[in-house]
Model the fold of this input.
Amino acid sequence: MTRERIISGEQRDEREEQSNWALRPRSLDEWVGQRATIEQLKIALDAAKQRGEPLEHVLMDGPPGLGKTTLAHVIAEELGVADGIRVTSGPAIVKQGELMSTLTNLREGDILFVDEIHRLNKVVEEFLYPAMEDFRVDYTIEGGVGGRTVNFKLARFTLIGATTRAGMLTAAMRDRFGLRYHLDFYDPPELEEIIRRSAARLGVEYDEDALHAIAERARGTPRVANRLLKRMRDYAQVRAQGRITKIVVDQALKIEEIDHAGLDRLDRSYLAALIETYKGGPAGIEAIAATMGQARDTLEDMVEPFLLQRRLITRTRQGRCATRAAYEHLGLTVPTDVEKKNSDDQESLF
Ligand code: ADP
Done:
């Protein structure tokens, strides 16, 4: 794709993240959406604080842009260790030594946030087990015959892991997290509330029906909602005296090629590939990715979760299938065997 994808939940660049920083919630009370998770988390936090103990390790999973990183920072604020959170990611930790220096610098109650934790390499992952369980690490110092293993004691810290693919985590890793939360797509009314707060922070004027229209097309994802709002603000500034109206939203979304259901070009080309090249499936993800010229990971992380949630596709043992709604969405004739194909054994996504 030549153009960047406005509705992807994926982080785009540092500058955007910095401007999003101002829009993020800072406490659990300010958090909109994910009600069950937030309630459970509040209890766990209060209990840990009352006992004067660090919080148990936390695992969060869910599609990109739903607030996993934001929630890790909120937890740090709630625990009074906003300065004591270290942020890294699975693929960034290549050697034990790198993790070793991070771990030994953590103080009691500090937080280590590991994004994309399913992408830790095996050696590093196993190095982390005793750190998580007993707050100690066995570190091998190179040199001499086979090196020398030294046992280091660590401060009692909290590991917060985030993943878009809980299914790719090893059971051994998953079991070491005492608290596990699944973040799901947000409802339009929740997104509307998030956009309302962001608009207030950005100082931008809007009409109610315009907010509603943005929320409906934000793919259930706060990062997308904030990104759309900023695009609308630009459009309104240049074309509509600074006020975000329904007309502004409709025109801007048209330019961005986002349709009435919030699908963009990439989503539609996924559906078109599945329907036109593979007759609606079942088709394997590798085959679809090759047809589209996209990376499999991109499709699995950023396209499929939303299409599945909207029931535009299903995942069966034989592969992905387009549903009746997908044909209807693209304005195509629905084949007679569509229900049969989609009723075959379905796999769960996570
Ligand atoms: P993830 O780590 O799941 O990919 P992030 O935590 O980076 O997602 O969230 C992306 C952006 O979306 C944040 O910068 C924040 O501004 C916004 N955001 C996420 N969750 C919420 C929420 N519940 N309320 C308001 N804004 C949110």
The domain at 34-182 is CATH 3.40.50.300 (Rossmann fold). The chain has three domains: 34-182, 188-255, 265-347. The chain has a mean pLDDT of 92.
